[in-house]
Amino acid sequence: MLFNSFEFFLFLPIVLFLYWAVCRKNLRYQNLLVLTGSYIFYGWWDWRFLFLIAASTLVDYFTGLGIYRATQTSRKKIFLWLSLGFNLGMLGIFKYYNFFIDSWVEAWGAMGFAMHTHTLNVILPVGISFYTFQTLSYTIDVYRGTLKPTRNFVTFAAFVSFFPQLVAGPIERASHLLPQFSRFRSVTAKGIRIGLKLILWGLFKKVVVADNLAEFVTPVYESPENFYGITLIVATIFFAFQIYCDFSGYSDIAIGTARLFGFSLMTNFRTPYFSQSIQEFWGRWHISLSTWFRDYVYIPLGGNRTTLVKWQRNLILTFLISGLWHGANWTFVIWGLIHGIVNSFESLNKKFRWISLQSSILSIAITFFIVCISWVFFRAESVHDAFIVLKHALRLNLNLYAVVRPYQLAVSVFSLMALIAFEASVNVKIVYNAYKTSRWVRWSAYYALIFMIILFGKTSHSEFIYFQF
Fold first, then answer.
1. What is the pLDDT at residue 242?
2. Contacts within 8 Å (CB) and 24+ apart, 325-329
3. Could you give the CA distance from residue 49 to residue 464 in angstroms, rounded to a whole number?
4. With contact defined as beta carbons under 8 Å apart, do 458 and 2 qualify?
5. N or C: which end of the chain has fewer CB within 10 A?
6. What pLDDT does residue 232 have?
7. Is 400 exposed, middle or buried (0-12, 13-18, 19+ CB in 10 A)?
8. In this predicted structure, what is the pLDDT of residue 162?
9. Whole-angstrom Cα distance, residue 444 to residue 390?
10. Inter-residue contact 245 to 213 (CB < 8 Å)
11. Across the 469 residues of the chain, what is the mean pLDDT of every consecutive 10-residue run?
12. Dihedral sign computed on CA atoms, order 54, 88, 299, 466
């Protein structure tokens, strides 16, 4: 079920009504309703997906209790490895099996050895990377002793499958979200107001900005060999904003929907394209994932509390794993490597002060340029296609090919300018304070968003990009 679908706009009011009108005074019934609604929401794509998330829930529920009850460290580790093995094993089979087998065959083929093997034609369960990492945070935190396991199975199952953020995050920590299922929740006018504003803003970013930009980006990146110069540059810049609006739009709708049910989810994006460095970019982009890798990969590897060489190794390795997390393709590995290398350079530059940029605008421009180069690999179908994009983009061809109709291009540019203007205004106190304090300014903005969604919004109900991860 998609957030931008007719089915969801029927589903959400029904569940909300039952949640607040029927189950309002009973926390147990509320959690049971959330669990039931989440399984309906997730099973809408393919009912077979439910068996996998149910299995993951059962394994981590009992391994969490096993870790807590074990008196010996060795027994705690057995339960921890059981959780890690099952979850990462399922992720590996469904997401990476064909990738590693095909890469193995290609590697031997490059050396002159012909190998034949079978690969599995499996459906990648929607959101498996997200809920796997979320439930792993539970067992790891229980093992570390920073979180006590819950004995209420319905509470835990609702935490794992919580439908607003189930398939594309934010990746919530058990220590933050799980306790909210054990506390009494009440509906407030402020919560509803914040939730609806976030949903409105998220829908604008998705159906107006992202989906209109996709009309230009998709045909160019599907056949990059047919385009040159300014067309490829514009398509790459458009994709940078397409993926941002698509993903952050989902996060906004997820956070807003959760607020309607009395839950608070973490912020996942903070105007990342205003970052003055790649390190700052990762403090603003997909924050729930970057902090997850920091706490559960980077720091356990040793972080920066080790030798200089190992510190840089830990940085690059973390980003390589992050790239592979995004998908079973070498393009994602290279994307992660680019961010890892630049992060490594910036950390060394901060330590040794080789280069100092005084202009914040120049820093933002350089950061955005590096991010766009990495997006080429992220978006391209293959490494070969990515290098075609980079090669053809260098040709000084100033003609913008007719990829879409002029009207479509105008809508894309107009909606993009509206987005940038609003996000820039957040950093301008006079404008932002006027928005916060003036009811006339706020409601004008709301009506403008609704008008643009109705007039320019795509009605094709396209999936969110991060569903494939």
1. 94
2. 325/129, 325/289, 325/469, 326/378, 326/469, 327/95, 327/468, 327/469, 328/95, 328/96, 328/98, 328/99, 328/100, 329/99, 329/382
3. 18
4. no
5. N
6. 92
7. middle
8. 94
9. 42
10. yes
11. 84 93 88 94 87 93 94 92 92 72 54 56 74 92 93 94 89 92 86 91 92 91 90 93 93 94 93 93 94 93 90 94 87 94 92 79 93 95 93 80 78 87 70 64 82 82 72
12. negative
Around Cβ 258, how many Cβ atoms within 10 Å? 23
Q: Alpha-carbon torsion 409, 411, 412, 413, what sign?
A: positive
Nearest to 332 by CA among 157, 469, 152: 469
CA distances from 433 to 47, 274, 419 (A): 47, 20, 18
| Rounded distance between C-alpha atoms, residue 223 and residue 229, angstroms | 14
Residue with tokens 């504003």: 197
384 CA to centre of own chain? 26
Terminal C-alpha separation, the chain: 16
Q: Is 326 known to be catalytic?
A: yes
- At 381 the three-state DSSP class reads coil
Which tokens in the block code for residue 428? 């301008």
Nearest to 40 by CA among 215, 163, 167, 212: 163
- Say how far apart CA 419 and CA 435 lie, in whole Å: 15
Q: How far is CA 343 from CA 211, 366, 457, in A?
A: 31, 14, 37
Tokens for 276, please give them.
């003055």
- What pLDDT, on the 0 to 100 scale, is given for residue 113? 56
Q: Using alpha carbons only, how large is the chain's radius of gyration in Å?
A: 23
Query: What pTM was estimated for this model as a whole?
Result: 0.89
| The pLDDT of residue 445 | 80
Ramachandran class of 187: left when φ > 0, alpha when ψ lies in -120 to 50, beta otherwise: beta
Give the pLDDT of residue 108.
47
DSSP 8-state class, residue 251: H
Query: What is each CA distance from 447 to 425, 439, 451, in whole angstroms?
Result: 18, 12, 6
Q: Which two tokens stand for residue 357?
A: 């940029």
- Which residue in the list 286, 326, 339, 392 is annotated as catalytic? 326
